[in-house]
Amino acid sequence: MEKHAQLFSSMHTHTVFCDGRDDIETMCRAAYDKKLYAIGFSSHAPTEKQLGAKTTWNLKDENVSKYKAEVLAAKERWQGKLNVFFGFEADFIEGKRAPADDDITSFNPDFVIGSVHYLYPESARSRQLAPFTIDGSEEEFYKGLNECYDSDARKLMNSYYDTVLEMIDTGGFDILGHVDIIKKNTINKDLWPKENEISRQKEIAQAASKAGLCIEVNTGGINRKKINEVYPSLTFLKIIHEYNIPLMITSDAHNAGDIAGNYNIAVETLKMADINEHYIFNGRINRKIVWIKVKIL
Description:
20% strand, globular, two-stranded antiparallel sheet
């Protein structure tokens, strides 16, 4: 494997198997051209059976075996040139789906990213409303805020962080995905007291540290021009740094052009948080993850 002055990887990537635009080989080629050390494929794990409704952005149950086979074939093709890993981005949906579910673990992924895209509060369950995604359009977000939280944004924010904490407690994953994605549709709108959110973020950092998780520094929101900063925010990164939690820069790429997209912003944000290293996933030995610690230049 050729070595470079600054190693990067992209462990959070999506392809045509879920809501990405390019196939596995095209994504591998882009990662190689960017001189990345590794690429990890993290298709959105299936959720249709759990939700009882079709989704437009999750891997289909009937395609999981084919997805795994194509990633493993790419791993063999690119051996010695690019490290290729097979994984999932698994949703936690209260009472319906968790990263530790048997149908995910049975495929023996190299890694799993745990993410909260949906909220499903008791108020929604009691009225038989569907879970709503906080990662969707602004219209969807505010519809969920109004219907499930009676327009109380502070209640929604606390519900989000409660759900992340429950996901961490449930376990079954290695990397905490876009941990403050709630800001996608709320950034700069002052919908709740900032000090309240900072308090909740400290709880997340404490729990992630105790669970031995890695947290991703995700440039996907910038790549897709939804926000102008990484997940998590600079403020949140400073909190995370206090707990010595490993951080992994990744692009959340949904097309080949976004592989390693805006990594310069991720690096500069880490520097502003006085963080001088990031981590690269390098497989497992005896089920334990091997991380490469990389000094930020």
